[in-house]
Design brief:
Elements: H1 5-13, E1 16-22, E2 25-31, E3 41-44, E4 50-51, E5 57-60, E6 66-69, E7 75-79, H2 81-84, E8 88-89, E9 94-95, E10 103-104, H3 111-114, E11 128-133, E12 137-140, E13 146-160, E14 167-178, E15 183-186, E16 191-192, H4 213-216, E17 229-230, E18 247-248, H5 249-264, H6 266-334, H7 349-363
Parallel strand pairs: 11-17
Antiparallel strand pairs: 1-2, 3-6, 4-5, 5-11, 6-7, 7-10, 8-9, 11-18, 12-13, 13-14, 13-15, 15-16
Pfam family, one: Baculo_F
Protein name: Envelope fusion protein
Keywords: Membrane, Transmembrane, Transmembrane helix
């Protein structure tokens, strides 16, 4: 490569050159990227819906947007739309940084790589989805006047320069349409306009030969459910994002099970059961709150009762001291000779009687068992000392 004039021009597209002047010399710096000898063919993955009944279509859900694979299908790598922006494209090749390492075929390889070997059945590592398409889709390939179509039923009217009569073509299901540059096709919704076709052997298409019979057998009773239709935000010219709106087989199976439960009444029973469980939890929480409130009130009342008892026990002691002090002052004021300051202020009735009896004996007077002593002071009937 690089010996032919056209190849030299293509080589200049990937070459970076810098020039500077130093010591009376002009220096040219030419940077040419180093590449590995492994040559890969870059494919864009476009999933195509396959109609298998009057309402539903099955579509694969790819993991990567682009795959680079060798001719013998033994080695591959993957790319995204953003990563391809860093690649340098020429008329005969594309040079890309190695974003992902080159991998060898294995049982864990992506579904897209497995399809390049035209398997008889859908590989186990492929994820499929179900979608309802109500509009016709025409997806134009980038480097050719070719459209991939998927439709329930459509009619194309093709007119070409130099031809007096148009061609009428009936379309159904999915397929490819090739138009010459001087022709134009009119469908019910759109017009297909060819552009200048890039005639190059480097742009090829690969359509794996894969049947969907084994796939549809995994989805029984599909008529029992209603799948949302693919109608909103719909681009009639693109198939790139159709698979993103498809429902996976696991989702479809779950929808079928829910519909069966609803028809058999199990769904209602489950709904009532959950309602009873929720009400039971609410009632249990209310009982716990009531118990906590009763405990709180009981503790509060108990504290108040203990406080009142403490106050009741202390009050008579203070009152007796008050009466004692008042009585002592009164007795000393009326009869200062009868009591000494150092003796107890309050004596019991028994002690008073003994003192009176003792004084009478000393004076030689007769004493009866009941002697009445008048101290001249009126005391409270009950005094706690």
């Amino acid at each position: 490569m690089g010996s032919k004039p056209n190849e030299i021009y293509e080589l200049s597209k990937i070459t970076k050159m810098a020039v500077y002047y130093s010591r009376n010399q002009i220096v040219f710096l030419i940077k040419i990227p180093l590449v590995i000898e492994l040559e890969l063919t870059l494919f864009k993955i476009i999933p195509i819906p396959h109609k298998f009944d009057s309402h539903h279509s099955v579509i694969l859900k790819p993991e990567f947007q682009y795959v680079g694979i060798t001719r013998n299908r033994k080695q591959f790598t993957t790319f995204t739309e953003t990563q391809l922006l860093s690649c340098t494209e020429t008329e005969i090749f594309i040079i890309c940084p190695e974003f992902q390492p080159v991998q060898h075929e294995s049982v864990r390889q992506p579904c897209e790589v497995s399809l390049f070997k035209n398997p008889d059945e859908l590989p186990s590592n492929c994820e499929a989805g179900i979608i309802v398409i109500t509009k016709n889709i025409y997806h134009k390939l980038k480097y050719a006047n070719t459209w991939i179509y998927t439709t329930t039923s459509d009619t194309l009217t093709i007119t070409c320069q130099g031809e007096q009569e148009p061609y009428i073509v009936k379309l159904q299901n999915q397929g490819l349409i090739n138009l010459k540059q001087e022709c134009r096709a009119y469908a019910n919704d759109i017009v297909l306009n060819p552009t200048r076709e890039v005639k190059s052997k480097y742009y090829i298409n690969f359509i794996p030969k894969l049947g969907i019979g084994s796939l549809t057998l995994k989805i029984p009773q599909l008529d029992a459910i209603t799948i949302p239709k693919y109608t909103q935000k719909h681009d009639l010219l693109k198939l790139d994002n159709v698979h993103e709106l498809a429902h996976s087989l696991s989702d479809i199976q779950s929808m079928i099970d829910q519909e069966i439960d609803r028809q058999s009444g199990n769904a209602e029973d489950t709904k009532y059961y959950m309602t009873y469980v929720l009400l039971g939890l609410i009632l249990f929480l209310l009982i716990i709150l009531v118990i906590l409130y009763v405990i709180y009130r009981y503790t509060d009342v108990l504290k108040r009762t203990n406080t009142r008892r403490t106050i009741s026990i202390g009050e008579p002691i203070n009152r007796s001291k008050f009466y004692t002090q008042q009585m002592y002052e009164t007795m000393n004021r009326d009869n200062p000779q009868s009591y000494e300051l150092q003796k107890p202020i309050i004596q019991s009735k028994v002690n008073e009687d003994k003192n009176v009896i003792k004084e009478n004996i000393m004076q030689g007077n007769e004493v009866t068992s009941t002697s009445k002593v008048n101290t001249g002071v009126k005391l409270p009937s009950i005094i706690n000392g």
